[in-house]
UniProtKB/TrEMBL annotation:
Residue numbers of the full-length protein present here: 677 to 927 of 929
Keyword terms, alphabetized: Coiled coil
Residue ranges of domain EAL in the record: 1-251
Name of the protein this chain belongs to: EAL domain-containing protein
Top-level taxon in the UniProt lineage: Bacteria
UniProt keyword Transport present: no
Length: 251
């Protein structure tokens, strides 16, 4: 397709950019980390949503090249922020193709080494769907053994099977924004949300609420003991330079 041809050239043509969305600890009011999110602006098609081109990149295997570029770009930016004194974490989304690649562990290790970043500042985000396709947990354990952390992304939208929580070395659960969205007006969603938070706490996992847009949502999450907040309420995903202002000003 036209879109696929264009995507093949996007990297060379400098059309890709990594945006960053802050993750805030609302208890301490600090930005504790950011999530790297890939953006593509094509000269003709304009901004192509990731929901459109990421699946295309996954189907064709192009995600290996793009994912590696995002990883290196994000870790490089992280180094810049660390040197400036912002000791934040960097979360990067990995798709199943990347996890299944025989050299994924070396790829991540060398990206960290080249930038001189302590692995504990890197978080790999995997969806439940990715874990289901991972078959065995060995690869995820190897990655985790590098010293990085693993987040279970979009939690609640897949099978939410306790089997994955049992078998995979998870450090953090990211509550999908559909729960955050419904929590303040749909009682049974509020109950599910509360259950996810308590599950995470019982397991001693970090828990992050995604897609937070209102103070009312924050208040409810805080009451449940979920202090880590990500969403438009603080910032949309933005270019690195725009985050500097938020770092300086605080939240
Ligand atoms: O940024 P936005 O919320 O529009 O992203 C839409 C989807 O694209 C999300 O599911 C997000 O995880 C995915 N996505 C964004 N950037 C990357 C990336 O670098 N790698 C992978 N695998 N997925 C990404
Ligand atoms: O699937 P994943 O969680 O990796 O992707 C995050 C997606 O959620 C990105 O596309 C990002 O732009 C989007 N996002 C982040 N915060 C908000 C929010 O507060 N509201 C909405 N509607 N989307 C958000
Ligand atoms: Mn994510
Ligand atoms: Na998510």
């Amino acid at each position: 397709s036209n879109l696929l041809n264009a995507l093949h050239q996007a990297l060379e043509k400098d059309e890709l950019e990594v945006y960053y969305q802050p993750k805030v600890n609302y208890y301490t009011k600090e930005i504790t980390g950011v999530e790297a999110l890939l953006r593509w602006t094509h000269p003709e098609f304009g901004k192509v949503p990731p929901d459109k081109f990421i699946p295309l990149a996954e189907e064709t295997g192009l995600i290996l090249k793009l994912g590696n570029w995002v990883l290196r770009e994000a870790i490089h930016q992280l180094k810049v922020w660390h040197v400036e004194g912002n000791l934040i974490t960097m979360a990067v989304n990995f798709s199943i193709r990347q996890i299944q690649h025989p050299r994924v562990v070396q790829t991540v290790q060398s990206a960290l080494n080249d930038a001189g970043i302590d692995p504990k500042y890197l978080e790999i985000e995997l969806t439940e769907h990715t874990l289901i396709q991972s078959h065995d947990a060995a690869k995820i354990h190897e990655l985790k053994d590098l010293g990085l952390t693993i987040a279970l992304d979009d939690f609640g939208t897949g099978y939410s099977s306790l089997k994955y929580i049992k078998d995979f070395p998870i450090d953090c659960i990211k509550i999908d924004r559909s729960f955050v969205d419904g929590m303040t007006h749909v009682p049974h969603i509020a109950a599910l949300n509360s259950t996810i938070i308590h599950l995470a706490k019982q397991l001693d996992y970090e828990v992050v609420a995604e897609g937070v847009e209102t103070q009312e949502q924050i208040d409810m999450l805080m009451k449940e003991g979920c202090y880590c907040i990500q969403g438009y309420f603080f910032s949309r995903p933005v270019p690195a330079a725009e985050l500097q202002e938020l770092f300086d000003r605080g939240i």
